[in-house]
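so ive been stuck on this for like two days lol. basically i have the seq below and the ligand is S-adenosylmethionine, smiles is in there too. i just want the complex predicted, nothing fancy, no docking runs or whatever. if the output looks off dont worry ill sanity check it later, just need somthing to start from for the group meeting slides
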Amino acid sequence: MSGDGYEEYEGFDRLVLDRTGQAEAFDAIGDRYDEAFPHKEGQLASGLWMAESLPPGSRVLDVGCGTGVPTARQLSEAGHRVVGVDLSPGMVEVARRQVPDAEFHRADLADLRAGGRFGPGGDRELGEFDGIVAFFSLVMLPRAEIPYALRALRNLLRPGGLLGLSMVEADVDDFAIPFLGHTIRVSGYLREELRQVVSDAGFEITGEETHAYAPASTDVPPEIQLFLHCRRA
Ligand SMILES: C[S@@+](CC[C@H](N)C(=O)[O-])C[C@H]1O[C@@H](n2cnc3c(N)ncnc32)[C@H](O)[C@@H]1O
């Protein structure tokens, strides 16, 4: 019990979840996403950490999987059983095509919580995972929702299970930015605050990497990417 009011997820249903435009932007971007964001050294390194830290055949959930490349593919090629979820039907379609050995569902992150469709007790329950990767997907949520989302992910992990999380380092909340010809809303934290939010959600942070990243596209500014390697405490 952390005593911070999140443990029963009771506040979650009172959050107003406005996803307007978020999936549509990624639906429209489709295959171009991989061209705009090449050379993902940081993400590949964190994917490798996850792939090598788990015994072959482990169940791994890729949250906000996008095109499935590089991460779902990397984990699947390492011999893990990968389940990917994404809000954008277009991204799910691309991911299914690019990573045929993995299983993909169109789902909102919020649907993974206890009582949600894909969460514990839901009619499409995904079950328990040995590892979860959430690379640049929690950036798409308002800050008020992120602690709940992290707790929902923790709840899907077996005891001692691993979480690989990446965020862009930025002190912003539900902030509209231009993104490959569309507008999306993003949130972020400075690194100390991110560590705090993740620890408060019941994770032990076992590793951290920082990467400076410049996307190929000119309308997306250079960014500092934070990768946290965590274990369910
Ligand atoms: C910046 S992309 C990252 C994609 C992939 N993880 C990667 O690193 O290449 C964010 C992804 O999160 C998905 N997304 C946005 N909001 C979401 C939500 N509420 N639930 C699930 N996925 C969401 C988007 O559709 C998009 O594919």
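The chain has a mean pLDDT of 92. Residues 41-53 form the longest helix (13 residues).
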